[in-house]
Input
Amino acid sequence: MGIEDRPRIVIVGGGTAGLCVASRLRRTLRRAEVVVIEPSEAHYYQPLWTLVGAGVLPREATARKQGSVIPSGVDWVRDAVTDYAPLDRAVVTRESGRIDYDCLVVAQGIQIDWNGIKGLQENIGRNGVCSNYAYETVGSTWECLRGFQGGNAIFTVPSTAIKCGGAPQKIMYLAEDHLRRRGLRETSRVIFASAGPRLFSVAKYREVLERIVEQRGIETRFRQELTEIRGEDREAVFEHLDTGETTTLGYDMLHVTPPMGAPDAVKRSALADEAGWVAVDKHSLQHVRFPNVFALGDASSLPTAKTGAAIRKQAPVLVENLAAYVEGRPLTASYDGYTSCPILTRYGRVILAEFDYEQNPKESFPFDQSKERFSMWLLKRYGLPLIYWHGMLKGRL
Output
């Protein structure tokens, strides 16, 4: 296959990953036909949903019409992929049927399982239950926070992979700070109930967060999986993942991070690994069995945090290697696992965690990023959204 043959490159997903790749491909492989398959009519900058849940800005500030962010020259198919047929070099969509490709980029994101916790679906947005993890539910978090008058505020993390692993504790820190500002901290318990074994994977940042939790009197309960919500009784049921012991906690506010996984279409396809993710080489982002298939972002098997910051570093590598594949050259670009997590520790303060596959800090600024800083709050609140809308989605950063 040569670039003069005008290869057809199909990108499944019009979220952060898909659009970053599409924009870059328009400049890198100018003769290629680039197709994005995405059913959504709106595109969201999801990292700001923590601030929406904390009452800093309205959810509408995070949304744009999907058509306004599709790169010029890219064909947008407003449809959803239901099946992958890599042996036939095709995908199958719900409405349009079969779509053939020369090269495929899977950027379908992650699937939220709202039914994965008994009682979650029917209680979300009522009975003190809220979640920042959807545009439709993020407003419920601020409603719960501003209506809270004391008692137990519980913040959960499931055992599955999730979008932005640090997000559940970000809203917890802001909620705790909000309660202090309202004079309710003395009559409140703030509980972090996580199925994981620790606050954070990277030691440098974890040690700082552990001190913050201790200083602010936040209770941590690790290896605790939320299994059931009894909304009418305001009770949350947890199972200890090591002992199987069940614990029931009363709550006045329950912020739930729902379980998540690979999209169904990916899980049942030949592209998936044993866990259901698109099986790619962690450095080249090329599929391990189908060389004309690449993947990045949340749907991929890349063993790093599922964040937009990771995609910012993945997209250039993928596009360079895809171009090399199309042109018959060796794939030399390599992704080192870089990801970033701006951890909001209170209103006006952020710790900017950046690290690679080896859990080594990989910081961008000439100062210690494990310290809480107002400057990093400004970056999170104002700088990163500008970078996203005008840089990343345009293929410039």
Q: What stands out?
A: The chain has two domains: 3-110+262-334, 114-260. The chain has ten helices and 22 strands.
